[in-house]
Design goal:
With about 350 residues, this protein is mainly β. Helices cover about 5% and strands about 50% of the residues. It has one helix at about 5-25; strands spanning about 40-45, 50-55, 60-65, 65-70, 75-80, 85-90, 100, 110-115, 120-125, 130-135, 135-140, 145-150, 150-155, 160-170, 170-175, 180-185, 185-190, 205, 215, 220-225, 230-235, 240, 245-250, 255-260, 265-270, 275, 285, 290-295, 300-305, 310, 315-325, 325-335, 340. The strands form 9 sheets. Strands 7-8-9-10 form a 4-stranded antiparallel sheet, with no helix packed on it. The longest helix has 20 residues, at about 5-25. It is globular and about 60 Å long.
Length: about 350
């Protein structure tokens, strides 16, 4: 039987086109799914793989992944067990699996990614926005991200240009227009051009949130404002940055933890053995061997059986339960529903 050469040519072209389409997506079985804009997507494990369900525990994005993180700003980090990639809310893998490491969440539309021993950034379309040229990077805040080359630290801008020279021993992310740098044993604050904003150099400091930053200077601990003035003088043993108007602080006398507001007033008593900062109006605390979620008045929302509760993102937080020899992790929502 003779076969028309022109007909065979068309078949070959068609097959080549189909192959090209299949190969254009690194994992063609991960097809886009329909997801409503108001649907909350929660990572959930099924038969050793991870997908995403809604709050009714109906599977929305099938369990295609070896691991998956919560969504934030319409993107989520996933892994095939060897490399990391990024998906959108339809389950479409916008990058393929090609990163050795990647941050969990985007910051100002940029995500730090690592290939080999170098870091760069991708944008929300999955395109490489800043080349893989740094030994380490941080999150973007106020248009700048910490960056490291050959053990020296500074800041890069969104174009990948060095905005503040890589000349410090350590740098901390910007907060409210101010960055924090360390040289030797001293810390000080800089603006987005790298200029010092006030003369004091501190023995220790955290970044600014809610208009205040925790510092230590000559044994004096407290919170300073943007002018460098100590507006909350304290004898606290330790403190962490403000979140949602409250800071978690530790008593010097009892070593118990409580919360203060931005005026320095005690809002929640110093009764906890440990606690976290507030996210989505809730904080995880431990008291007398029991764990709780509390609201911003200190009222117990519920006792929880978890060893730890992570920060809430889009109403979802990771939890860990069990003893050290048998630990499992899964996700909960702000209503306490478990997804596993």
């Amino acid at each position: 039987m003779r076969i028309n050469a022109g007909f065979m040519f068309k078949i070959i072209v068609a097959l080549a086109g189909m192959l090209l389409v299949a190969c254009s997506h690194p994992y063609p079985w991960e097809k886009a799914v329909e997801v409503g804009p108001d649907v909350v997507l929660v990572p959930i494990a099924r038969d050793g793989r991870t997908g995403y369900c809604d709050k009714k525990k109906q599977m929305i994005i099938p369990p295609w992944y070896a691991g998956a993180d919560p969504f934030e700003d319409g993107r989520a980090r996933v892994t095939d067990g060897a490399k990391y990639g990024v998906i959108d809310r339809t389950g479409r893998n916008i990058t393929g699996y090609k990163f050795d490491e990647a941050y969990r969440f985007f910051s100002e539309g940029m995500l730090g990614v690592k290939v080999g021993n170098k870091w760069g950034f991708i944008d929300k379309e999955g395109k490489l926005a800043i080349p893989l040229k740094f030994d380490d990077v941080g999150e973007f805040h106020d248009g700048l991200a910490t960056a490291t080359i050959d053990g020296k630290h500074g800041y890069t801008d969104r174009n990948g240009d060095i905005a503040i020279p890589l000349e410090y021993d350590h740098t901390v992310k910007f907060g409210e227009g101010l960055g924090l740098v360390q040289q030797g044993k001293k810390y000080w604050f800089v603006d987005t051009t790298g200029n010092e904003v006030f003369p004091d150099h501190f023995d220790y400091a955290y970044f600014f949130t809610d208009g205040l930053a925790w510092v230590e200077l000559n044994g004096q601990r407290g919170f300073i404002d943007h002018a460098g003035k100590m507006v909350i003088k304290t004898n606290y043993h330790w403190a962490y940055p403000f979140s949602e108007g409250l800071a978690t602080v530790q008593s010097s006398e009892t070593k118990k933890w409580g919360f203060i507001d931005t005026s320095g007033h005690e809002v929640i008593p110093f009764i906890y053995d440990s606690n976290s900062t507030f996210y989505d109006g809730m904080a995880f605390v431990t008291q007398d061997g029991k764990n709780f979620l509390i609201d911003k008045t200190g009222k117990v929302i519920r006792e929880v059986p978890y060893r730890s509760v992570g920060d809430f993102h889009d109403g979802i937080a990771s939890v860990i339960e069990g003893e050290p020899e048998f630990v499992r992790s899964f996700y909960i929502d702000t209503d306490g529903n478990e997804y596993h």
